[in-house]
Amino acid sequence: MDATSTERRREMRRRALLGGHVVMNNRSSTLDCLVRSLAEHGARLQFGGTPWLPEEFELRIDGRNMRRKARKVWMRDGEMGVELG
User: Fold this and answer.
1) What's this model's pTM, rounded to 2 decimal places?
2) Beta strands 29-39 and 14-24: pairing type?
3) Count of alpha carbons within 13 Å of 76, Cβ hemisphere only?
Protein backbone atom coordinates (compact mmCIF):
# COMPACT_ATOMS: atom_id res chain seq x y z
CA MET A 1 0.00 0.00 0.00
CA ASP A 2 1.55 3.34 -0.95
CA ALA A 3 1.16 6.64 0.89
CA THR A 4 -1.09 8.18 -1.75
CA SER A 5 -3.77 5.54 -1.30
CA THR A 6 -4.21 6.38 2.41
CA GLU A 7 -3.85 10.17 2.19
CA ARG A 8 -7.23 11.89 2.59
CA ARG A 9 -6.12 15.51 2.88
CA ARG A 10 -6.60 17.79 -0.08
CA GLU A 11 -3.20 19.40 0.52
CA MET A 12 0.09 18.59 2.22
CA ARG A 13 0.63 19.99 5.70
CA ARG A 14 3.92 21.45 6.81
CA ARG A 15 5.38 20.46 10.14
CA ALA A 16 5.07 23.14 12.75
CA LEU A 17 5.72 23.79 16.40
CA LEU A 18 3.54 26.79 17.19
CA GLY A 19 1.60 27.77 20.28
CA GLY A 20 -2.14 27.83 19.77
CA HIS A 21 -5.38 28.43 21.63
CA VAL A 22 -8.77 26.82 21.18
CA VAL A 23 -11.40 29.50 21.85
CA MET A 24 -14.96 28.38 22.64
CA ASN A 25 -18.11 29.17 24.61
CA ASN A 26 -18.64 32.56 22.97
CA ARG A 27 -14.97 33.44 23.57
CA SER A 28 -15.29 32.93 27.34
CA SER A 29 -13.10 29.77 27.48
CA THR A 30 -9.69 28.93 26.02
CA LEU A 31 -7.50 25.85 25.98
CA ASP A 32 -3.81 25.90 25.06
CA CYS A 33 -2.45 23.53 22.42
CA LEU A 34 0.53 23.00 20.13
CA VAL A 35 0.04 23.24 16.37
CA ARG A 36 2.15 20.33 15.05
CA SER A 37 1.31 20.64 11.35
CA LEU A 38 -0.43 23.34 9.36
CA ALA A 39 -1.86 23.90 5.88
CA GLU A 40 -4.26 26.40 4.37
CA HIS A 41 -7.31 24.21 5.11
CA GLY A 42 -6.24 22.03 8.04
CA ALA A 43 -4.02 21.48 11.06
CA ARG A 44 -2.96 18.86 13.59
CA LEU A 45 -3.20 20.00 17.20
CA GLN A 46 -1.61 18.44 20.27
CA PHE A 47 -2.97 18.72 23.81
CA GLY A 48 -1.64 17.73 27.24
CA GLY A 49 -4.38 15.10 27.52
CA THR A 50 -7.58 14.24 25.69
CA PRO A 51 -9.87 17.21 26.29
CA TRP A 52 -13.55 17.45 25.51
CA LEU A 53 -14.02 20.06 22.81
CA PRO A 54 -17.03 21.14 20.77
CA GLU A 55 -17.20 20.12 17.11
CA GLU A 56 -16.52 23.72 16.01
CA PHE A 57 -14.40 26.40 17.66
CA GLU A 58 -11.99 29.23 16.89
CA LEU A 59 -8.27 28.44 16.60
CA ARG A 60 -5.75 31.18 17.33
CA ILE A 61 -2.11 30.62 16.39
CA ASP A 62 0.63 32.55 18.19
CA GLY A 63 3.19 34.38 16.09
CA ARG A 64 1.03 34.24 12.98
CA ASN A 65 -1.70 36.69 14.00
CA MET A 66 -4.08 34.01 12.78
CA ARG A 67 -7.67 33.32 13.84
CA ARG A 68 -9.60 30.67 11.96
CA LYS A 69 -12.83 28.79 12.39
CA ALA A 70 -11.95 25.12 13.01
CA ARG A 71 -13.98 21.91 12.79
CA LYS A 72 -12.90 18.72 14.55
CA VAL A 73 -12.28 15.88 12.08
CA TRP A 74 -10.58 13.29 14.29
CA MET A 75 -9.12 12.94 17.78
CA ARG A 76 -6.92 10.27 19.40
CA ASP A 77 -4.20 10.08 22.05
CA GLY A 78 -4.22 13.82 22.82
CA GLU A 79 -4.05 14.88 19.16
CA MET A 80 -6.74 16.34 16.93
CA GLY A 81 -7.04 16.91 13.22
CA VAL A 82 -9.08 19.97 12.27
CA GLU A 83 -10.42 21.46 9.07
CA LEU A 84 -9.91 25.21 8.89
CA GLY A 85 -12.53 27.52 7.44
Assistant:
1) 0.82
2) antiparallel
3) 1
